[in-house]
Specification:
Layout lengths: L1 H23 L4 H26 L4 H28 L13
Enzyme class: translocase
InterPro entries: NADH_UbQ_OxRdtase_chain4L/K, NUOK/Mnh_C1-like
GO cellular component, one term: NADH dehydrogenase complex
């Protein structure tokens, strides 16, 4: 029981650290995507332990992982297209008015 609450607190702390990195480091698109994936991983850990604690099936975690993979692929495709068109992933060099 104590390990379960420890995992809940650990996943919440991981999520808060991911939010802090997301807010503080917005220079490169790759670092933003990595912090978002870290936040998604901490949410997955939270949902996994919560569903196991309540005795529910783990099908929701499979759907959650599927959507997380789709989100990661979309982020990487945006990163690749941005690097191909602009040459780097700096947010300062990217302008919406040029597209």
């Amino acid at each position: 029981m104590a390990n379960l609450f420890l995992m809940f607190y650990l996943s919440m702390i991981m999520f808060l650290f991911g939010c802090m990195v997301f807010v503080s480091n917005r220079k490169h698109l790759l670092s933003v995507l990595l912090s978002l994936e870290f936040m998604v991983l901490s949410l997955f850990i939270f949902f996994f332990f919560y569903l196991n604690f309540m005795g529910f099936e783990s099908y929701f975690s499979m759907f959650f992982l599927t959507f997380c993979v789709c989100e990661g692929v979309l982020g990487l495709s945006i990163l690749v297209s941005m690097i191909r068109t602009h040459g780097n992933d700096y947010f300062q060099s990217f302008s919406v008015l040029q597209c």
